[in-house]
Amino acid sequence: MIKRLDNVKIPAGKGEDELYKLVKKKAGGRLGYFRILKKSLDARDKGNIHWLYSVAYSPDKESDDKPPLEKLKNAPTVCVIGSGPSGLCCAVRLCERGYSPVILERGKSVDERTLAVDMFFSERKLDINCNVQFGEGGAGTFSDGKLNTQTKDGYNRDVLEIFARFGAPEEILYLNKPHIGSDKLKVVLKNIRAYIEGCGGRFLFNKKFVGFDSSGSELKSVIFCDVISGEEGELPVSAAVLAVGHSARDTFRMLHDSGLYMEPRDFAVGVRVEHLSERISFSQYGVACKLLPAADYKLVSHAHERTVFTFCMCPGGVVIPAASEDGGVVVNGMSDFARDGMNSNSALMVQLSRADFGEGLFDGMEFQRTIEERAFAAGGRTYRAPCQLFGDFARDRVSDKFGEVLPTYAAGVQFAPLSEVLPAVAVEAFKTAVPDMGRRLKGFDSADALFTGVESRFSSPVRIVRGADRQSVSLKNLYPCGEGSGYSGGITSSAADGIKTAEYIYNLHKNIGNNH
Predict the structure, then answer these.
(1) What angle do CA 103, 319, 373 make, to 5 degrees?
(2) Which residues are in the FAD-dependent protein C-terminal domain (predicted)?
């Protein structure tokens, strides 16, 4: 019989072998089954920081095996457009349900993509179809691989189990704030691809979705273009899952021109802010920081009339060039699994609304593009990023030297006034909010904290509207899902949305088969 034990305290610096010994003693010296269910850090008292565990155990051997999912016989062709978290997890679930999906991806496979990204980082040569935004794994490939989410969804567990099954560290199944890290995620992606191909699925890399053929208001085939040769192809399908990312601006335009109903969305813009990792850890944990992983934080300020918040915090990470269009500078954050870099960074964002950028469908998208072009110009038009120390930003002066915090942005930085890049409301909001945040996290508002701009790809600027049946309200058999379609944000919620879409398609086809 499996029993559960909650609120087990293990001191900071002690490993899970201590936990195992404690639970084994509780079980009477014999432990045939042991599973960690939850692990979180209690740092409320810096003099007594400890890990909190919940575990399941039994003196007898037990099994966690789940029965396989029911599969559809003679499953029809489904195309998944995009190989980010939503697309890949959708494809995995389709395979588990008996399908052999075709995955259409404008970028390259992860190893080739990494070469293209490294080339951009070092030589500033941008491939507009294969970069930090586009390619196998989507934008999440070059990130912290953060898996925590605010969305309560029964499929979140499925997402974690998929990643763990294909090579992510097992701890993601129980950590309060799980992350994979960019280095580990690349291994997971290759394992997922091998599984899908083993189920008869296909990956078509370097193939951009450029249109579709329909009969009335029903999708019949997907049209794609080879981004290298320019040759077009067509794939007849029973359904297509639209899992493009939030940066697929040309795809958004094409879909609108093709008659799909879409809506504009509000979003946030900002900068990446960098501090020394050891400073953040000491502020959070005190002297115990030497016994613990690099600290994270999550801050919100309402000191200004506009809410300012941190997002996608990367402990021990780097700021990376994330452009996907010529003539624009975009930044993002990335960490490897170890999170052992010199700096920590996060996005510092201010919420904008259509009152700031216009009511038109693509006004927000063009607003994003405009500030990216300003950042490109401010950085010297070479994909260097404009940067400024917070102390100088607050006093409206251009920085001329770094403090202790040195930039990690791989393509190089250029001192420039970010007030000429960001919207005025963001500049004033940051001047007010950062000192307010510094009152809660000591050192956050240090004069040498480094701002690098711009963080403009927080979320999709549009929503491709779908109905209760998860299909486009304009085109039957087209299933918008994930972050680019405006229905999720981040790896886990996007992946869960993809799984739910796969389940809907399976149940629809199953019911059709039962009625014939």
Answers:
(1) 80
(2) 266-457
Closest CA to 72 of 515, 435, 505: 505
| pLDDT at residue 148, rounded to an integer | 85
Is the bond into 92 cis (omega within 30 degrees of 0)?
no
Q: Give the helix ranges, DSSP H, for 14-76.
A: 16-26
H helical segments located in 379-484: 390-394, 424-438
**Token representation of residue 420:** 């000429």
**Structure tokens, 57:** 């155990």
84 in Cβ contact with 495 (< 8 Å): no
Alpha helices in 140-231 (DSSP H): 156-165, 182-198
Residue range 361-374, pLDDT digits in tens: 999 999 999 999 99
Compute the distance between CA of residue 173 and CA of residue 349 in angstroms, rounded to an integer.
29
Domain ranges of the chain: 3-58, 78-263+463-514, 266-455
Top-level class of domain 78-263+463-514:
alpha beta
Handedness of CA 53, 56, 58, 62 (dihedral sign): negative
CA atoms of 450 and 428, how far apart (whole Å): 17
Q: Is the pLDDT of residue 516 over 60?
A: no
Q: Which helix (H) or strand (E) segment is 223 a member of?
A: strand 218-226
- β-bridge mates for residue 103, sequence order: 80, 203
Into which CATH architecture does domain 3-58 fall? 2-Layer Sandwich (3.30)
Q: Strand pairing of 207-215 and 218-226?
A: antiparallel
State how beta strands 267-276 and 33-42 pair: unpaired
Q: What is the 3-state secondary structure (H, E, C) of 98-122?
A: CCCCEEEECCCCHHHHHHHHHHHHH
Mind listing the pLDDT tens digit for each residue in 406-453? 999 999 999 999 999 999 999 999 999 999 999 999 999 999 999 999
d(CA 31, CA 15): 18
Quick: pLDDT tens for 228-248. 999 999 999 999 999 999 999
Q: Is the CB of residue 379 less than 8 Å from the CB of residue 385?
A: yes
pTM of the model: 0.96
Kindly indicate the confidence band of residue 515, based on its pLDDT and cuts at 50, 70 and 90: low
How far are the Cα atoms of 26, 244, 273, 394 from residue 447, in angstroms, in the given order? 51, 39, 12, 9
